[in-house]
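User: Sequence for DUF1330 domain-containing protein below. Tokens please.
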Amino acid sequence: MLLYSGHEEENPQNTWRVALMTFKEARKAIIGWESHGFRIIKASFKTKKEVIIMNVIQCYAPINDSNDDGKDKFYEKL
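Assistant: Structure tokens for DUF1330 domain-containing protein:
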């Protein structure tokens, strides 16, 4: 299973995207997923213990050479 967060345009100017790839078995356990912009995705899964939900956050952080404003916005959102 592939969960994807990124640009919807066909040829975006910037191509930052993030994805989360799981085994087929994870389909049975997934509760839902959320895109938080084109750099962050969160997926929630059921576990064997019914009261526990596992949240997985996958992100593509800005590189050190990026401007400080962009990095600050990313880390605030994260």
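The longest helix spans residues 68-77.
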